[in-house]
Design goal:
280 residues; mainly alpha; 8 helices; 80% helix; 4% strand; flat
Amino acid sequence: MADLATKRATSTAIGISGFFGYLSGTVSGWGIGSLSQHHGWSAVFNMVIASSLLSALLFALWLCWTQGLIATYVLSDPTWISQAILGLFVAACGHCGLRAWWLARELEQVTSIMRRARAEPDARLQREDAGLRLGDTALPPSLASEYFTAVLGKYAHTAPPESLDHALLTDLLADHASGSHEGGWFLCGLLLKLGLLGTVIGFVMMLGSIATTDSFDVATLQRMLLAMGLGMKVALYTTMIGLIASMLLGAQYLALDRAADRLVGAIVHFAETELARRAG
């Protein structure tokens, strides 16, 4: 760098980069330490993964903007189908982020209950007006505590508890854990259909330019070719954007479905193996 700039500019650049490097190290160390102390290391790993994915997404958007890809493939669409696909995709990604945060919180609650149960093998699980209590510890409101409260309610009115069937409660639990994902899968199909709609509209625009041509002089042919090119661009770009958005969104909702299955499995496993003997 010293061969390309003055010594003052070089030292200034090194000082600024070093300052922000030390500052980020201090802030990240304090933040990760505080997060692990209050929420456990699983929350730290989830935060690191989410930050990495968000950084990659922002970098990809910045790269597409600086290279003119967004202006070429999205903003230049006269039918506004590409803009609609992009808007729905961003909104659905926001929903995925909220669902991922909720599922991570619920999984952490179940893991905390399991750790507490292993630490206190003889602790009783009791229903109270304020909620659920494991031994002397009040459990915070969560999907797991709601399910355990409902199962304990059945235990209180039926004996023996080992013979009870919780299929209906388990179905309700699964619906609460992943029911809202159905709207996301609908959006995945909708994005693909919007891309195909853009294909049809693009071909209509392209063929319409030929149908309205009444002469074939050079100027008319140039305008016709421009209109045909615009129609073909709309057809291909909307299809490409719809396919890419649908695949990326489908991958996110697939991961959410797997996380919801893990949550339901952990809750049902604890209920089947521990709840009957701990019911108090």
